[in-house]
Specification:
19% strand; 6-stranded antiparallel sheet; alpha/beta; binds 5'-O-[(L-methionyl)-sulphamoyl]adenosine; 7-stranded parallel sheet; OB fold (Dihydrolipoamide Acetyltransferase, E2P); 21 helices; Isoleucyl-tRNA Synthetase, Domain 1
Length: 651
């Protein structure tokens, strides 16, 4: 891969699923990252597609009494149409039933077989039909599948195995010496944890007598290929592996975006397969968190019972894309509610961005006859306009860094902060007062500088909201409003004075929160408003420090069990903890070493702020914060009264 080229992939989705928030999220994320890379001038390729073989497709087709290929052809359009509606601009869409893919899988298998990397053996063990995976006796949990919890079948049959076990030591060493390979860091630790157990060889075949819907093994026509071995190959078959060396060299290795549930296949099976093929490892495998909509969090009275895809229809595709990207701290779980959507939409898009455009357009209309005024000479060299533009240019650098480091929500927040700074700039410059002065120069500079800032912010947000941001830039009189030139993001005085400035209407009309039905408890946002009017006792006339329910609701608190604790060299007050929050393992650095010995902490169920952006303390990453009460010399951790499994929501 050339240093400035960028190949990004999503998982390929099971073709018979209906597209849901999980699929939509990864695909929008890949689309936004790809659009950002293009914006920064990099050669970019974005691949998505569908996983079309395996038991589930065979069974679904059998139920309908149709051929599995026909079933896949019928259902793949759901994804293709959903991606069109979501504004996804992928460069390719691979289907694992396409000849271009099947041929490559077979060639790879034949090559591995010829070189003794694949061998035949008798298999005797447990098989989970829905997961299509084999397990040893030790893997089972209460006799059931460790992944889905369903009953498993005893299977004794001849199969083909890939000698994955021989790569265990190499893989551990590779992961340890390439910190960027598996991201975020706590997922790398999860894979290394998995690799502490002996790695088994991978069964890569299924006898046709049990499953016929798959790619036939080239060296034994009685077997088809295990669906994961087939599916993972899509990442290279799509870009010309063994067919088009130039294309392959241009793009490989990839950045794979995946959900946290498919970490092992992508960070253990896939690297071993690539190693056996003699290919370089993926540049990064980034595992994002899950969108939570557990029934506990859905309640009619909160007005958050919602199908996320409906939300897109109701409020528009661009705000929906913006919400997904701005709300989820990459790597961590996030909660999806209509209320959270409306809150963020109103705060960032209606109040900050949309309002700024309104103000600029209406003042240019009122004071300058609807044409963009020219700034004073030197205004962008020193003074308030130059200061503002500096912050805007820093936001451009911040967004770029956030794309590279997978901290997108932080980059987006920096752009919105630049929008807010522009609104504040208008407050301090007071163009309405400047308009009364004899010299129009300062007024013109103020309005031009605000428009310039908007231009850059809209350019930076273009990958997230291509339609709306093109509208915004067109309102500023830009020709080719849809095309952002990378250089214009850090350059000032790009807008042409004299161009007409006019908005076709409100870009982001404010959404009024859904009104609760009669007899229902008001939504928390409404309660917060009521509380705002009457400050609690003790704060009469001094509401400082009071937060609204909305502010509080941004903090996610969850229970976590402390699994290990250790001192950090050179930091007397800090302990490094490994905690389990539901299924998720996190590393937390806590300033409690003066109050607790590491061994006293193991097994305690504590309360963690789970949606804090990760930070580094003394060079060690902390992915959350423990709650503790302290007074004078004493500090005690907040724990849970009685038995409760980890990962529970604290509210
Ligand atoms: N076909 C395999 C992937 C093969 S890739 C070589 C597969 N498909 S899937 O359709 O079941 O899932 C695709 C992705 O959706 C996974 O990355 C999964 O993590 C993601 N999500 C499913 N539900 C999700 C949420 N609720 N939230 C975020 N993403 C989740 O696995």
């Amino acid at each position: 891969m050339k240093p400035d080229s960028y190949y990004i992939t999503t998982p390929i989705y099971y073709v018979n699923d209906r597209p849901h928030i999980g699929h939509a999220y990864t695909t929008v994320l890949a689309d936004v990252l790809a659009r950002c890379q293009r914006l920064f001038g990099h050669d970019t390729w974005f691949l998505t597609g569908t996983d079309e073989h395996g038991q589930k497709v065979q069974e679904a087709a059998a139920k309908l009494g149709i051929d599995p290929q026909l079933h896949a052809d019928n259902t793949v359009v759901r994804f293709q149409e959903a991606w069109k509606r979501l504004g996804i601009r992928n460069d390719d869409f691979i289907r694992t039933t396409q000849p271009r893919h099947k041929a490559i899988v077979q060639e790879i298998l034949q090559d591995l077989y010829d070189r003794g990397e694949v061998y035949r053996d008798e298999y005797d063990g447990w098989y989970c039909v829905p997961c299509e995976r084999f397990f040893t006796e030790k893997d089972l949990v209460n006799g059931n599948c460790p992944d889905c919890g369903r009953p498993v079948q005893r299977v004794r049959e001849a199969n083909y195995f890939f000698k994955m076990s021989q790569y265990q030591d190499w893989l551990v060493e590779y992961i340890q010496s390439h910190p960027g390979f598996i991201q975020p860091d706590f997922r790398r630790n999860e894979t290394l944890g998995f690799l502490r157990k002996p790695l088994q060889d991978l069964c890569i075949s299924r006898p046709k007598s049990r499953l016929s819907w798959g790619i036939e093994l080239p060296f034994d026509k009685d077997y088809v290929t295990y669906v994961w071995f087939d599916a993972l190959v899509n990442y290279i078959s799509a870009i010309g592996y063994r067919r088009d060396d130039a294309a392959f060299a241009r793009w490989w290795p990839a950045i794979h975006l995946i959900g946290k549930d498919i970490l092992t296949t992508h960070t253990v099976y896939w690297p071993c397969m690539l190693k056996a093929m003699g290919l370089p490892m993926p540049r990064t495998v980034f595992a994002h968190g899950w969108w939570m909509m557990g029934s506990a969090k859905m309640s009619k009275s909160l007005g958050n019972v919602v199908n996320p895809m409906d939300l897109m229809e109701r409020y528009g595709v661009d705000p929906f894309r913006y919400f997904l990207m701005a709300e989820m701290v990459l790597g961590q779980d996030a909660s999806f509610t209509e209320e959270a959507f409306i809150r963020r939409y109103n705060a960032d898009l209606a109040n900050d961005l949309g309002n700024l455009l309104n103000r600029v357009v209406s003042m240019v209309g009122k004071y300058c006859g609807g044409r963009l005024p020219a700034p004073q000479a030197g205004a962008f060299v020193a003074g308030p306009a130059a200061e503002l533009f500096k912050q805007v240019a820093e936001a451009a650098a911040g967004l770029k860094a956030s794309v590279e480091h997978f901290t997108l929500s932080a980059g987006i927040a920096q752009v919105i902060e630049a929008v807010r700074a522009t609104n504040r700039f208008l407050e301090t410059q007071q163009p309405w007062t400047q308009a009364r002065a004899a010299d129009p120069g300062p007024l013109h500079t103020t309005l031009y500088a605000a428009a310039e800032s908007l231009r850059v912010c809209a350019g930076l947000l273009m990958p997230l909201m291509p339609g709306k941001m093109a509208e915004l830039r067109a309102a500023l009189g830009m020709e080719n409003a849809m095309t952002v030139n990378p250089e214009e993001l850090t350059k000032s005085e790009v807008l042409n004075p004299g161009v007409p400035v006019a908005a076709p209407g409100a870009l982001f009309p404010r959404i009024e929160a859904p009104v609760p039905e009669a007899g229902e408890k008001p939504a928390p946002a409404a309660e917060a408003k009521a509380e705002k009017k009457a400050p609690p006792p003790g704060t009469i006339g001094n509401p400082e420090g009071i937060i609204t329910y909305d502010d509080f609701a941004k903090v996610q608190l969850r229970t976590a069990k402390i699994m290990s604790a250790e001192a950090i060299e050179g930091a007397v007050k800090l302990l490094k903890l490994s905690v389990l929050m539901g299924e998720e393992r996190r590393q937390i650095v806590a300033g409690i070493a003066l109050y607790y010995k590491p061994e006293e902490l193991i097994g305690k169920t504590v309360v963690v702020v789970s949606n804090l952006a990760p930070i580094k303390l003394r060079g060690v990453e902390s992915q959350g914060m423990l709650l503790a009460a302290s007074k004078g010399e004493r500090l005690r951790l907040v724990t849970v009264d009685g038995d409760l499994s980890s990962g529970a929501v604290v509210k």
